[in-house]
Amino acid sequence: MWRNKQMLCINHSMNSHPQFSIIIVTFNRPTLIKQVLANLVSLDVQSPRFEVVVVNDGGEKETEAIIRSYEQALSIRYIASSSRLNSSVARNKAIDQAQGTHLIFLDDDVLLSRDFLMNVSKYVEHYDVFSCRIERHRPIRSSSFARFFSWITPGAIFPLLGYLSGGFDIVYSHPKRVHHLPGCMMVVKRSCCATVRFDPTLGMGNGYLDDADFSLSVERENKVQLWYISSFSLVHLQASAGGNREHDRCRWYFFYLTHKFYFFKKHFLPLYHVPIIIFSFFETSIRSIIWRENLFGSFIEALRYEIQ
Predict the structure, then answer these.
(1) Are the C-beta atoms of 207 and 86 separated by less than 8 Å?
(2) Nearest to 302, CA basis, from 211, 204, 217, 213
(3) What predicted TM-score, i.e. pTM, was given to this entire model?
(4) pLDDT of residue 12
(5) Would you state the pLDDT for residue 42?
(6) E strand or H helix at 43
(7) Beta 76-81 vs 50-56: how paired, if at all?
(8) Residues 43-58: what's their mean pLDDT?
(9) Helix (H, G, I), strand (E, B) or coil at 308
(10) CA distances for 247 relative to 12, 37, 149, 242, 253, angstroms
(11) Among the listed ranges 10-24, 56-70, 203-217, 259-273, which one has the minimum average pLDDT value?
(12) Where are the alpha helices (DSSP H) in the chain?
């Protein structure tokens, strides 16, 4: 049982529910979680009342010490696991403990401006589920294909290709309706999570598509719309260590494909499955050439996992 496997420590000094619960899952990134918590302490004094729900996945001691050092400055609900969870399971535990009327999901490697919550509060009255602009700490090389679709249709899902477009770093003159949201930052009205949780299958290995799956499930279950609002932003540091990821490239690619096959099978008609596999074969060929590494073993392994 959960109580037998991990320790639950909660510090809450509030008499009424806060407006926001900021949910952060961290794994072996003590320096980064310290930076995020310091950001939250320095938010504008006029910011709405909020709590921070932090999951220390794996219970790393240095991380715990840092989180506890901020318990006097912040209203923190601390959840520590003595065994490693995955990002989806950890976030679900945080959702169960959160008390805010709106949930803000943040990665542990982000930088926030002082007016971050002030900006979020401007939009929660109009949008149930949304994300802000994600500025990259360092540029990401992407193909012309990816850049084209990001500009034309940001946050779109193309089930025939098994492809999701990004574009969450592009500035638009008005909010854009999208088909999925990035997990780096999502704001979700708590009532929309009544029957929706993160899928544990998509949290294994790399947490690829766990955020897209969650936001799409929220949209369909609650008949709401997903929005991308580029008028305010945060910075994503894209940390190279820690977090929910596989560092071995072949293992990373295996989970990338298995999550992709699972996601599209879960949400879209079977007629898309064969084209997605064919497209993934060509993607494997291109990545193998670019990375100079044979990824077809990972492709075959993922395909076998898919048809089991």
Answers:
(1) yes
(2) 204
(3) 0.91
(4) 42
(5) 96
(6) none
(7) parallel
(8) 94
(9) coil
(10) 37, 26, 28, 9, 10
(11) 10-24
(12) 2-5, 30-41, 61-69, 87-97, 116-123, 144-152, 210-222, 249-267, 273-291, 296-307
